[in-house]
Amino acid sequence: MDGALRYKGSLYTRPAVATMLEEAAAVVRRYYFDHNATTPVSDEVLQVLIPTLAEVYGNGSSIHYFGQMAKQRMEMARRTLAGVLTVDPREIVFVSGGTEADNLAVLGSVRAHPAEKKHVVTSTIEHVAVLNSCAQLEREGVEVTYVPVGGDGRVDPDDVRLALRPETVLVSVMHVNNETGVVQPVAEIGAMARDLGVTFHVDGVQALGKLEVNLSTLRADLYSLSGHKVNAPKGVGALFARRGTKLAPILHGGHHERDRRPGTESIPSAVAFAHAAEWAAANLDDETERIRELRDLLEEGIVERVPAVSINGGRTQRSPNTTNICFEAIEGEAMVISLDLKGFAVSSGSACSSGAVEPSHVLTAMGLSAERARSSVRFSLGRGNTLEQVDELIEAVAESAAQLRRLSPAWKVTA
Q1: Residues 234-240, mean pLDDT to the nearest whole number
Q2: What pLDDT band is residue 410 in, cutting at 50, 70 and 90?
Q3: What residues form DSSP beta bridges with 31?
Q4: Domain extents for the chain?
Q5: Are 274 and 77 in contact (CB under 8 A)?
Q6: How far apart are CA 67 and CA 73, in angstroms?
Q7: Tens of pLDDT along 96-125?
Q8: Spatial contact of 248 and 108, defined as CB atoms under 8 Å apart
Q9: What percent of the chain has pLDDT over 90?
Q10: 3-class secondary structure, 161
Q11: Nearest one of 408, 347, 269, 288 to 34, comparing CA atoms
Q12: Around Cβ 55, how many Cβ atoms within 10 Å?
């Protein structure tokens, strides 16, 4: 057909695309419900970030005044973040984000281990930064066991225990799943790993700012963090590396970050991240309770207004800001597009997997069929969301579901 565009198997005429764009442009208000993908930089973070960008431009490795002023600010940021996590500042390694933190933890700890025969235990629902790091280790001759999860999306510590071998050098299990918000039993797994002398890594990217993260009691040897999930800028993260944990660098260069991560540090980013983490910790109780109430109202409203929906992972402990909902006979990406045209930003899965043809590996690992996994949408709330926005989102979801099901040959209205 002349003048037509094809997207994921669907054919759209150019006039239809133009109409869609006009509808999107006509939307006056836009509301953001995709905070697990990233968060807006907060006002209080901007107030420390902008002056630091303008005034602290020295290289922290230089011995002159400008360099030493930069180093001082870097170490202040390190102490602030360490205070939030209740750890020694020397155990904080600043990196470029959660993906690098996961790579450094998984690859660095295993490669630093002297054993010839090595084995790693992880779960089937980890972030791709962990899964692909494990795949790289397999190419290097390391054996990896992928522990399954139940229908609730939760790892059973007994399954981890059964997977352990004498040659196991690392266990890696995330704290909060990025797609479902399901909280994993990392304290129990960490205690087990500590008793057996196995290094334990936790991807905590989705936990900071949503749960209490006290690394002095968590029993994790390595813990990954990301700034842009807590209203700091993109491009900064951190890895907690408990003193005594062996860690080989995965980048090669200078002696920065105590020889664990070479490269000139971004002092403004580190300062902003530390400030954001400190604010999140200070306001944790009030903010998480407020967001949990909004999340629960959103779920209740959608379940009440839209037939044939289910909450993925909704029967176990979850992060207070996340809900993942399956809409029968609706493509998740179609719902995402429809809601975007109505002014609401949501997601059909992990932002790091956007554009993937395969259904969510997290949802299929929980036992959902490929069809149901593709029919699921993630809503993740944050600081800027209000009750009024939630009410409008419920209305928009109900309208979109009705519109899309009228067009769906798979949808049959039953009496």
Answers
A1: 98
A2: confident
A3: 344
A4: 4-32+284-407, 43-282
A5: yes
A6: 10
A7: 999 999 999 999 999 999 989 999 999 999
A8: yes
A9: 87
A10: helix
A11: 347
A12: 13
What would the pLDDT profile of 215-231 be if each residue is shown by its tens digit? 999 999 999 999 999 99
Specify the CATH superfamily of domain 4-32+284-407.
Aspartate Aminotransferase, domain 1 (3.90.1150.10)
Among candidate residues 136, 352, 391, 403, the one labeled active-site is 352
> Distance (Å, rounded) from C-alpha 275 to C-alpha 354?
30
352 catalytically annotated: yes
Task: Report yes or no: 4 and 13 within 8 Å, Cβ to Cβ.
Answer: yes
Average confidence score pLDDT of the chain = 93
Q: Report the distance separating Cα 332 and Cα 283, nearest Å.
A: 33
User: Do 209 and 149 contact (CB within 8 A), yes or no?
Assistant: no
Residue in the structure block whose two tokens are 């002349």: 2
Pairing of strands 322-327, 344-345: unpaired
Give the model confidence (pLDDT) of 32-49 as tens digits. Answer: 999 999 999 999 999 999
Counting Cβ atoms within 10 Å, is residue 162 exposed (0-12), middle (13-18) or buried (19+)? exposed
**23 and 399 Cβ atoms separated by less than 8 Å:** no
Distance separating alpha carbons of residues 183 and 313, to the nearest angstrom: 10
Task: Decide if 339 contacts 400 (C-beta within 8 A).
Answer: yes
Rounded distance, CA 371 to CA 323, Å?
Answer: 19
CB of 82 closer than 8 Å to CB of 89: yes
Length of the chain: 415
- CATH number for the region 43-282 comes to 3.40.640.10
First-to-final CA distance of the chain: 39
pLDDT of residue 32: 98
Asked if 189 and 171 count as a contact pair (C-beta separation under 8 A), the reply is yes
Q: Quote the pTM value.
A: 0.92
Question: What is the side-by-side order of every strand in the sheet holding 322-327?
Answer: 309-311, 322-327, 376-380
- Bridge partners, residue 322, by sequence: 380
